[in-house]
Amino acid sequence: MIRSFFIWLGLALSVSCKELTDLEALASAPTRCTYEHAYDMLGAHCGGLRLTKIPSLRGGIEILDFSDNKLQELHADTLSSYSSIKFLYLAENQIYMIDKDAFASLSYLQTLDLSKNVILALPDSIFQLPSLRKLYLSGNPLLHMSFKDLTITKPIQAPLELLDLSDCKINKLPDWGILPKMVLYNISHNPLTTLEPQHFSTMCKLAKVDLTKSIDNLKLCELKATVIWFQEKNVYFHLSDYNRLNTREFDNCPKPEISATLNASYHLCEKVYTQVQNAKTSRRTWLTISGGLAGFLVGFVLLLYIMHRHNVAQTKRTAKEKTAAAAGVKTATAVQNTKTSRRTWLTISGGLAGFLVGFVLLLYIMHRHNVAQTKRTAKEKTAAAAGVKNATAVLLNDVS
Ligand SMILES: *[C@@H]1O[C@H](CO)[C@@H](O)[C@H](O)[C@H]1NC(C)=O
Ligand SMILES: *[C@@H]1O[C@H](CO)[C@@H](O)[C@H](O)[C@H]1NC(C)=O
Ligand SMILES: *[C@@H]1O[C@H](CO)[C@@H](O)[C@H](O)[C@H]1NC(C)=O
After folding, report:
1. Best of 201, 234, 259, 263 for a ligand 2 pocket test (most atoms within 8 Å of beta carbon)
2. Which residues cross the membrane (predicted)?
3. 209 DSSP β-pair partners
4. How far, in Å, from the CA of 35 to the mean position of ligand 3?
């Protein structure tokens, strides 16, 4: 009896173990989107679920990781219910079609990852997203088709800081116009047939260009003008092989002068950058002023309330004192004097208290605003530094 039980148990165990190894990955993997909070943001993880559609998600999500799924088309209504999204990861899907209004409602979108899809053409509207700072388009093999006759509205409104066009089969770099905030331009792994400094002179904050495996088809002297430009503007550039530039042949290439046109577009970029920064500063000033005003109003209302309470108490007392006054004028004067000075003192201290409360409130509001700002910037920096595709993991995991 006992022995047969053990035999049965052993059998059951071995069967279940076998099943576990076979189906382990499948069984333990989540089949639905999961949610996580990080830095005051709500994130939805739907990565690697073999989904062909974005399921109905909670409202108010600010991060959506939908990478590694089977999404094919982005229509106007695909994302329209999630207008609060700031970080959108759609890498490794099968997206080939993007409607021009697909991101229309995402006015807070900061990071958009469309890497490793099969995008044929990018709608113009992507470049007009008002908050878009990072755009990853790496590994979309047909992207060059849309760049050949790029008819994009310039200047681009998106405040792009990072543009990843690596491995997009581009031969000729598109003319983006002025990109005043661009810092990192990744054009690695493209079969470039030309490289001109004017592709970079419109990016006056450019710090890094990745040209790894992109200039192998170019003759050495064709690189000279761009290399001189990078050196002049302190732009760091990645190459697969720097030795090419350390040759006598490169030294002997004719040294072109930096043209007035290049200088002009660079200066225009600087001017636009200053304007954008000024607009930001004035917006911040406006916020501070309105915060101060709100604080003052709260203080004022508090003061009115204190005075009202005080007056109610006073009126009650006055009624009593009138009776007393009938008894002696002298006493009444004394009472009147102390009353007046007490009221003045109370009004002043009430006003002061109200003002202080308003001021503290204002400081608190400003502090909260700054903390949120700093946290977000730091977080984004971490994600950028790691160069992460699954940036959601970084965003959500570094909560300590
Ligand atoms: C540029 O893109 C390639 C390929 O996606 C990547 O390996 C590389 O790290 C990127 N370069 C930078 C500087 O981020
Ligand atoms: C462009 O500016 C550089 C310095 O930034 C200068 O050396 C060069 O002469 C200028 N070119 C022209 C044509 O003004
Ligand atoms: C992305 O990160 C999340 C959270 O750590 C993880 O669950 C998920 O498997 C990752 N996705 C990919 C494709 O690596």
Report:
1. 263
2. 286-307, 345-366
3. 185, 237
4. 12
d(CA 89, CA 81): 16
Q: What is the pTM of this model?
A: 0.72
User: Looking at the CA of 30, which ligand is closest?
Assistant: 3
Question: What pLDDT, on a 0 to 100 scale, did the predictor assign at position 9?
Answer: 47
What is the residue with the minimal CA distance to atom 13 of ligand 1? 210
* pLDDT, mean over the chain: 83
Whether omega for the bond prior to residue 55 falls within 30 degrees of 0, making it cis, is no
- The pLDDT, as a whole number, for residue 11 is 46
d(CA 146, CA 151): 9
Q: Is the CB of 228 under 6 A from ligand 2?
A: no
Cα within 13 Å of Cα(363), Cβ side: 6
Pocket of ligand 1 (CB under 6 A): 138, 164, 166-167, 186, 188-189, 208, 210, 387
pLDDT of residue 365: 80
Residues with CB under 6 A from ligand 3: 45, 47-48, 67-68, 390, 392-393, 397
Q: Which CATH architecture has domain 29-273?
A: Alpha-Beta Horseshoe (3.80)
Contacts of 58 by beta carbon, 8 Å cutoff, 6+ apart:
35, 42, 44
Residue 102: count of CB within 10 angstroms of its CB: 21
Please give the pLDDT value at position 336.
66
Along the chain (400 residues), what's the average pLDDT of each consecutive run of 10 residues?
50 46 55 85 92 94 95 96 95 95 96 93 90 95 64 90 94 92 96 94 97 94 96 95 91 94 97 92 82 80 83 79 65 64 76 80 80 70 50 46
Q: Determine the distance separating the centroid of ligand 3 and the alpha carbon of 378, expressed in angstroms.
A: 21
Taking the domains of the chain in order of start, what are their residue ranges? 29-273
Q: Are 310 and 267 in contact (CB under 8 A)?
A: no
Please tell me whether residue 60 adopts helix, strand or coil conformation. Answer: coil
CA distance 153 to 148: 15
